[in-house]
C-alpha cells in the first residue's frame, strides 16, 4: 500500500523534475542531451558557459551578477575592490613544479590581477577526504603559506570540511580573494576594440603538460615543470605610468587557464563583439609542449596555463606594454600574437604556417580534466 509519505515524495519529485526539465530549456546541445553533470561542464568551455547561462543564471534570478567575468569589480564609496573565488581539484595533488597548494593561491591572485587589482587577502576552504594522510595536507598547507608570502597576500579566513572515504579525491581547495584597483585603471572585456594588439606573456601549455606528464599511463619523458606564479607584479609593470604620467591603455586581461588561450580569446571576442586574428607561428609554444601535444593529439592553444596572461592593448601603447612585459621575470617570453578586427565578430581565426586560416572555436569542455 502506498503511504501518504510516499505519495508526497512522489509529488515533490515530479515538481522538481518539471522545474529542471532539460527539454524545456532554450539552450543548444549538449546540455539538453545530458540530464546529468559530466566532466565537460567544469572545463571552462562551451559546456561550462551553457551551464551558467541556462541553469545558474535563471535559478539565481535577480540575485545574479550582471557581468560574468572571473573577477567582480565592486565600488565601495570612492574605492574599487576586486573580488574573485575559485576551486581547485587538480589530479595529482603534487606535480612537477608545484601542487594544489600553489595553484589555490596563485590562481585567485591572478584572477584579481586580471582586473588590474593589487591582491590584498584570500580565504581558504578545504574539503578533505577521510583517510587523507596528514603529511600530504601539511605539504599542501605549507605550499599555500609560501605562495601567499611570495605574493604578498594574507590568508585571512577559512573553513574545513571532511567527507566520507570514497566521496572525494584527497583534497579539494577553494580560495576567494579581495584586491584593490588603482585609480585610472579600467580593465574589462567590453573595452576591447578593433585594432587592439593581442599579447601573451610567454610560453603556453607548460602547466597542462607538466601535470599530464606525471599522470599514470601518460608519462612521455618531458622535463617541463608547471609555470604557476602570481602575475600581479607583471600586471603592475604593464600599467606603470612611467614618464608619460598615465597608465598604458590596457583594455582587457585574461589568464588562460582552463581551455587555454583558445578559451580566453573566444570569451573576449564574444563579450566585446569583435573578431580576433592570430598568427599561429607567433604563439610561443615550447618544443616539449608541441611534442607532447603531438603524441596525445592535443592542440596547444587549448592546453591550460597557470603562470601566463593574454593582454588586449590599444595599438598606440602596444610596444610600450610589450617592452614592460619582457623586462619582468614573468614576461621574458612575451610576444605579439594577433590583432582585434571588425571582421567575423565573436570569432577567433588563426593563420597557419601554410598561409591558410582556421577557426579556433571555444572548446566544448576540456581536453583532459583536472588541470587546476
UniProtKB/TrEMBL annotation:
Gene3D superfamilies xrefs: PurM-like C-terminal domain, PurM-like, N-terminal domain
Q: Which InterPro entries match?
A: HypE (IPR011854), PurM-like_C_dom (IPR010918), PurM-like_C_sf (IPR036676), PurM-like_N (IPR016188), PurM-like_N_sf (IPR036921)
Q: Where is the PurM-like C-terminal domain?
A: 193-344
Extract one GO BP annotation from the record. protein maturation
Q: Which Pfam families match?
A: AIRS, AIRS_C
User: Which part of the chain is the PurM-like N-terminal domain?
Assistant: 69-181
Task: Give coiled-coil spans as residue ranges.
Answer: none
In which family does this protein belong, per the annotation? Belongs to the HypE family.
* NCBIfam families according to UniProt: hypE (TIGR02124)
The name under which this protein is listed is: Hydrogenase expression/formation protein HypE
